[in-house]
User: What shape does this take?
Amino acid sequence: MEENKDKPTRRGKGESETKSVSSETNDEVQLEERTADSKCDPVNDSLDTQLSGKNDKSTEGEDETISASTACSHRVMAEFTLVLTGDPNSIEIGSENFLLHHDEQTNVKQFSNKLYDLCGRQICVINMLGLPNVDKIPLNQAVHAFILLIPNGQHSSHYRSGIEWLERTFGKECLSYVMTVLTHKSDEKCESALADLKANHCFVEERYHTCRRSMMNVNEIIDILEKIDVMVSENNPQCHNLLMIEVNEDQKTQDHTPHKEETITKAEQMKTAAEIQQKFNQAECDVEDSEKNNEDTAEQPEIKPGPCESKETAAEQMKTAAEIEQKCNQAECDVEDSEKNNEDTAEQPEIKPEPCEPKETAAPPPIFGAPGSSLYGLSKESAVPTSTYTVEKMETGSEIKLKCDPPKEHGDAEHSKKNEDGTAEHPETKPGHCESKKKTGTCEMDLSGNKQSKILTEEHKKEKLPEETEILLCRLHLQDSYQQKMSPADFLKIGPPVKQSNETCEKDLAQTFCQMSMMLDYRARYIPARQDGSEVSQPEVLPESDSIDTDDDDAFWANTEDSNQSKQAHVHPMDVQMAAFHCSDSFLKQNMITKLSQCQYALPLLVPDPVSMDIECPLWTFRKITKTWKKTQGDLKTVTMKSMPVCKAETPLVSFFRLGSLSLSKSQLMNTLINDRHSTFFHRNCPGSTKSRHLMDGVAEIAWYCPAGKPTDSFTDCVAFCNLHGDSLLIEKQREILTEKSSVIVLLLPTLKKSEKSYTVVSSLLNATKPLICLITDSDCGAIQAKPGKYKLGLKDRSQSDVSEELKQIIGKILSGPHTTFQLESLGISGIRVDENDSVCQKGKSAAMEIVKMIEGMDISKIKEKFLSCEGQLWHNWCRINKELYHLKGNIEKEKEQKKKQLMEIRQKQCDASCSELMKSFTKSLLNLPSKDKEYFLKWTQILIDGLSTDDLSSILQNYDETWSKVLDLKRKHDKSAELKEKQAELEHLSKKLQSATFGLEHIFREMGQIYEAHKSQKKQTGSRHTDWVKYPELAADVMISGYPMELMDGDAGHVPLTWISSLLQEVIKKLGDQRVFVLSVLGVQSSGKSTMLNAMFGLQFAVSAGRCTKGAYMQLLKLSEEIKNDYMFDYVLVVDTEGLHALELAGNTCLHHDNELATFVVGVGNMTLINIFGENPADMQDVLQIVVQAIMRMKKVKLSPSCVFVHQNVTDVAAVEKNMDGKRRLQEKLDKMAQLAAEEEVCDVECFSDVIAFDVQKDVKYFAQLWEGSPPMAPPNPSYSESVQELKNIILSKASNSTGILLSHFSSKIQDLWNALMNEHFVFSFKNTQEIAAYRRLEVQYSNWTWTLRSEMLKIENQLHLRIVKGQLDKIENSHLSKEMNKTYEELKKQMVFYFEDDRDKEILVQWQGQFENKIKEFHEEHIREVKRKLDEVIQQKNARKKLDNKKTEFENKLLQKSKELAHQLKDVVENEEELKEQFDSVWSYWVAELTSDIIPIKDINLEEDQFNVLEELGTEWNLIMKSREEGKYKELSEVGNYFGYITLMKYSRVGKALDFVQEKTRLKVSLLTHDDQEEIRFFINNVEQESLKAIQTKPVATQGYTSTYLQEVAKNVQKKVTEFESERKYIFKKEFTVNLLLYVFDRATSWLLQSHKTYKENNDALTYLNSKKNEYYIVFKSYCKGSSSAVVFGEMMCERLKVSAVEAVIDQTAVDLAGEMRCSLPAFNGNRLNLEKHVLTSLAEKEDFSKYKTYIQNPKKQVEAFIKEEAKKYIFTKQKEKEPKILKKNVDDINKLIKQALFEATDKVKKQEGNIDMWVKVFSSSLNNKLTLDTIFCQNFRDINNFDFLKEKLEKGLKTVTTEMSRLPLDKVMECRQTPDQILIDQLCNCCWERCPFCAAVCTNTLKDHSPDKHNVPFHRPSGVSGFHTKDTVDLVIDFCTTLVGSDRNFYPNRDSKKLVPYKQYPTAGDPLASWRITADESKLTYWKWFVCHFQKELEDSHNLKFQGKGEIPNEWKRYSKEEAIESLDEMCKQ
Assistant: This one.
């Protein structure tokens, strides 16, 4: 290897040089030390401090150095480091871009050359555009500025999301380093953006800049840099520390040896070489095999390990090479080839001695002095420890693998360790394997759900840990967590499943322990571990002696030491627990200890600090623990139940101390006193126990014995046992504390002699007053009471059970007399540190105490009444009245308005009562406290409130139990006395008291929800002083995101607060984004362990304590961890826990209805539902299954697709496969049976359960063992239960991997839909999927766009083909030709459709309609082609029909031209005045026309009125009647008549007719006996006759063959025939007046078509008409000849005139299409779906207040919609957008002008080149017009003398200018004379939809598709039925009810007038068609619009229908208060739903 030379390199403002060591041996590989991290840090802008140290001489005696430049890789320091964040679309990345000319993310290796060229400064630009996931971006830069790029137009939303990302990623402090740059396109204006951005509170105008997206402008970039300079100087001039946490990687096994390797990852930022030295010291080394292949004997080389974590203590303590030698004896290391190293790896000195030989001491790595090194506790003068290194292998990048053996501890007595039982241990402390990663920042989840980045500064310097503790934490991968504590957020997420393998890697032990603890698996303490790097599958090779001589037995008899000393001991299980404890924050500690308590484990009471060794009492961790027991008292053995927080429980305390070393296990003995079947205290015989432990000595653990009130109880009352670990002689402080607090002290001694060290302790206790029990191991005496309260007991030759029994008796005897008690809270005054005394905890407690002080001492059942009044009776009354809205009877609208008024009054009362002191204090704390304080505040509030309610609950439950027992006794005696009634009443009272006594944090949040709903319901803020209610959803969202469950359904009121839940979820969406969630719900009977199962599965916090059964439903968010996130299509799991079915407090039908309602809601709301079945009772199972199956069936009917998994809990012998199979078979049978039963009730065809839902009984059923392993209260959880929970979790996640979940916004609307439908009881008929409806409406808009694309393209093609037909170039049209013309557009459209259905965010919803809409577009395309072909065929027919006239045109033209020419020659010199010329021409023109048409019969105009009169007379109608009908004009509105009773005559001999005659005779009143159905039948008959008649007339060839009156005769006879047929099926006949009016009505409708068709016929076939149209053209020719113009001039004028006619036609046709397109885009009424159009029609009607138009709309909505479209189009073209039409017209004129000019050029050019004549010129010119213009043929024989075509072209161009000018000035009226007017085009587009009408109220369906089957008809604008004339049968009372209210009421109706069976409105679809084809959902008639209309036009409606709004149809007074503005506003609200 070549010798390295010093190569000085420039490094910013300073230089740094270091030495290097090299060797000439071939084995040596150079180590590169990584310094790039530190030298690229802008904090170290210049290396002012230069340290160089001389290394010891190498074996060759050569001094060498390593140049700093080599380590720097020739890189200089960045003067600025900029991070680009924001939207990638806001910048155009390119080579000319100054800021970013590459698209690589996090590029920190290159400086920006372009910026250097611009400003001469080295600037590092880091690309973090797109807001990436920072966990995957290892950066080691410090940042001067974050440049937030936001695009113009989207600046507000992008600014907010960018700032949120920065704050979440780098902490709030980074906001002072943000420069906001708004980018825009060159032509964009962005002045308004600044005002928008100022609305953000964190926006600073001085740190805002605008720039073009290309970023190529020098001045703009310089301005940005100058502003950054100012910002840096203002920041004084610090930079933000951007230290990211690198992703941890699993350690890799290098060799298949029993020894372990460890990858040590370099810290992200090492500022000094001293830290590099520490990295070497952290390495954990192992033994490498020597070159000998001897597996039997492993020689141990020198060991040189360092501490396992990068701590300063190692660098400071190891001062000399001798110390290092002690630490690193027997090490052998190796280095991987340096070429594999990452390019950033700095060079390390290579030191590799020969294996198995003493090593030469080599030089340590150099130390690079740098500013800021003191930050890490090192000064420039820090001594560098000299040590010997054996380098084995170097990993790439910053990972270095070192192997080492543990150091030997010297001095047995000095360093010996004791195990937990006091047994002496040999020093065997061995460093574990670790991966040293130095985190300078970790992320925690705060209450806002945001990650807070913690940055290490000098104030956060690491504390010095004992070396063995460092090693332990390193082995467990907790070295970083000691400073940056683990938090509940680290475990409150769904990660990979807990490994169920036999062994767990050491590095995973702590994580696995925490996870298993959260799962209530007490085996968390017994996790089998393997040392990292060892192979699990490879059996351990036992060590053998060095001597293998079989004849030598000395080796066997020799007292050999452990030959396998190099093998490292497993980590002690209690060390794992305590290490996790020390590395957790206070909240995780609390959760951990709570779970350990549930596992019936002892809990740490006194804990020495690992650094300071100060004693701490973790009182905070006990706060959530509640113990329940039954106390037995007196001779009568009275049992009293107690339940209280363990911190407040006053119990005896029995403390156990060990004095000296013992062979007996103290912990094991204590276990026999508490639970001999469970190791409450860990002892030496527990699995995994080892000799070595580091964190337990001095720890005092406590456990409570809780009696069950049985004779077998060890103690009659709760007793606390405390175990002080270690030798109590050496642990004086803890011993004294416990001695003071104990009720009984138990000492374990090896012997009882005065000469022993223990004498002093024993004697002091003997003389004290506390009872004392001494257990002596070398004594065999029985229990002796030496003096009162002082006992001794020998243990020698005694069984543990005997000792345990005697000990129980002694302790019981002592405790039966007077004794002191112990309370955990009393430790706070013992002079030790209590964790609760931390200031942040105290702040939270103080805030919570303010609340608790208000309620302390109060009757718990009265608290809610006083302080939470909004959620009490007021809320319950509101819910009751709200439910009554769905059970209205009688005058439902009036009743409904009254109830709504009551609801508003309740809300007002809630507003008035919303200012309780408790709520003000609570919300004030939530609003003002910092994040961490807020967490403590919530915890304290929950703990303190639970503590208060637990006391009262316990007494209430006790009283309830006693009273219930008395009631049962009285019933057994058949005692019906007053005492029984009294006790039953008392029991009922206690039951209600029990419900009201439950009080927790959830009730406070419920109150917040009610306060919010109350204020929100008042449209304007009330006068209340309470003004913070608007912030409540945000506060609750923060709490929910931080991990608290939030109430979804109020279980007490049985109601979902929809407004509150919607706002809460909306705030969650604002904070997290509209994330996809997988909703997991659970359903089962009450107290079946649902909440416990969810808590164990996910580590949640659902309440499960005694007396606190879940009421209602709660939801909690769980995030997917990064490890599994990519495997799923959602980001979160939302767990919904629900109350149980069969609630005890409900009974009978109430319970059944409640259960069905709950099950439907729970199943509907979840993507998956866990069906929890408890026990094996077939009856209970059947009830639950029937409810569940029916709920699932309902979901299927409303197109929701949940999945389910059945969980069968508390099943005996779950391991029996055969029994499980039989159980599954029985379950399948029950499910099939239940499915059939449910199908009968839900009316659907189902044979088995799998017909309802995809279900596999083998995979979707999970059996659970019972929860407890034994009998509570001392039973631990069953480990099999935890295993089952884990397996179930895996099943759930496996199924969830195929689900896309649901967006949070969709989830919110789904809750609304489900609950609204449930309120209406008939769920299937009432369910309205809001999200589905919204998606469908957006699809309708797209459908309109797609059809318009096809229609507009087809219009262009139609216009072109029309021209070709007129020009005679086309005489036949085929469908295939039209399809070919449309193919390109159609194919492109199909691609757009596929893209929409596949890429839309609602694609899962849209997929159900994809096929339907694709077919509809196909049908529309084909139908439109057929329609265009039909129209063009008519044009061809017309063209063919006028061939006779066309043939004469040549003759006419020649004669007229010749006569004009002759007349001009005659008058040329005679008449000079143009007026005289005109008179002369006019005088001869008539003569010429008469002469040319002398042999042709002219076509006369038709007289339709006369023909109609004659036809009616021929039918026998009297002349007077005809004239009267014409004069009155009523026939014109025949289809809109309100009441047709005046047109009919009842059968004279019918009973109805006689009754009517009698009534009218007596009362002289006109009574209408026509029902609404009768009225609508007549109206339908009229419209049907009209349509059929028009269709018949339109089939007549009027346009091609002319009109004849026989057409009207045919129509009249057909109408008369239909009237006769209609009368034959009715009980009445029409009067003659009706028949006459009907005929006149039909004739009137046909008139316009007949006149237009006849006009077309006349224009095409009448020679006289044709000749008169040519008069102006020949007058111009005549004038030209008079002036002596040449043939070219005359020809040009004729051409211009004919071009003008053709061009005008083409221009106005295209303008019409363009105007239609413009209006469709610009007018809001036309650019949406059918519903949008309907809304604007109704709005327009309200604004005009014209009842006649309303009447038309009500009776014939399509007619009024068409009128609206015409009116809006006319208004747009002629008024609103008058300037638009000229622009469109001018564009089309210009297009035509260009076309004509191009044709002129081509024709002239071609004729000149080919020397053609005028015939050729005309032919070329005509063909060049590209079928866009028609041109009447000019017969050229009169112009053959033209030969100067340039002159002709010039004349034509001149004339063309005039034509163009005239066309550009065409009046709008002329434009509207186009072939297809813009309004008609829009009518064809917008009215081609569904026009079906609601059978109840006649509102028209608003579906955009004409035939939208199988989707049902629907309309949100339902109205009172009386608007359409509905009235109460046999009365004149109009119906006032909305059908949307009726379908939610308890009313019934007759489906038709002949029906005898009433149908409930709630089941309206069962009445059959047409009702079955409609979807009418109950909406409480929220539409104000029609209420206003009825009140405003009451008189007009009554007159129109001859009916009255009276009786049951009386208009409610509340309706009369609505204004027109409110009415119009309500339309918008309904469209949003």
